[in-house]
Write a structure and sequence with these properties.
Blueprint: H1 5-17, H2 21-27, E1 28-36, H3 44-54, E2 57-66, E3 69-78, E4 81-91, E5 97-104, H4 106-112, H5 115-119
Parallel strand pairs: 1-5
Antiparallel strand pairs: 2-3, 3-4, 4-5
Length: about 120
């Protein structure tokens, strides 16, 4: 069964932006490759949901799907400031996320959410 990357991506976005960790785990393949510039050795799911919970709003600014990969750019808002988060997903034919690469705006995180740098 070949599950559409767009469908998986939509479920992924909804799960992490609403803090539904159970849904995130259902979408992750076993032992996914995860790369991030924010706490690369920490608990990825915990950081993902803490980040979402700290924001006032999150919206997909741009999404591009090519083959089994998706590139997403998010507009994140906190304290009246909007900044970006880039995320790159690879999805297998079964509809599971096998690779995640996230690039956070570390300047914005340091200024607006310093607790994310200290807790993990």
């Amino acid at each position: 069964m070949d599950i559409a990357v767009e469908d998986v991506t939509a479920r992924w976005v909804t799960a992490w932006t609403t803090g539904r960790t159970t849904d995130l785990f259902k979408l992750l393949a076993a032992a996914p490759t995860i790369e991030t510039n924010l706490d690369p050795d920490g608990d990825f799911i915990e950081l993902l949901t803490d980040y979402a919970a700290a924001l006032e709003s999150i919206a997909v600014f741009s999404q591009t799907v090519l083959d089994r990969r998706a590139a997403l750019i998010y507009d994140c808002t906190l304290a009246g400031e909007t900044f970006r988060l880039a995320e790159f997903l690879t999805v297998n034919n079964a509809g599971l996320v096998t690779e995640i690469r996230r690039v956070y705006d570390l300047d914005a995180v340091e200024r607006l959410m310093p607790h994310l740098l200290l807790e993990h």
